[in-house]
Predict the structure.
Amino acid sequence: MSRPILEVIALDAADAAAAEAGGADRLELVTDMASDGLTPPRETFAAIRAAVTIPLRVMLRAADGFAAGDARTFDALCAAAAALRAEGAEEFVLGFLAEDGGPDLAAVDALTEMIDGCRWTFHRAIDHAADRDGLRKRLDGRPGMDTYLTAGSAAGVDDGLPVLLAEAARAAAGEPGYGPQIMAGGGLTLAHVPRLRAAGVTAFHIGGAARPAGWSAPVSPAAVETWRAALDG
């Protein structure tokens, strides 16, 4: 079984360095964790990129929620994506839902054009979709998309674990729409890891779990080390 990926949310260069020291494989760069992560400034990306050697995925999201927003907001997000790409960003995180709860394909396609074929994660918008399977099928084959960040439920992994296990089985069977890697995250705890690993899930995402002193505290290298050991055990 391949070594699982551990992705850690980083807000700044200190977070990034601590996560790398603890054994993280990749970072998700965001600002405003209270809004579940928004696009960080270009300068923050540059500082973090200079501080670590592990891969970074940069959030492309302008506001809390999963709508693309009005034309002005979305145009600003596209401009931010282009600026981050020009700064050297090579991996991203994004995802939008339309009013009917399905994927907003126009917004997804417009934004991914700005990042020029880079690899990207469709984030937890999938957990709020009206039809998870339908969303996967409609997004199937989108250039660069290689991961779904998902808890299996809008309420978190505790509620969504059966869904994650079922989707891992469908991925193993090669079902269309299930090719992108499942990255479990959203209320993920160490207690969930054994069942997810046994089902073949090979990617894990933590935010608050890397900050045992609270969401406003910095990343703890020791906490990340604990997760690294659990995933490798």
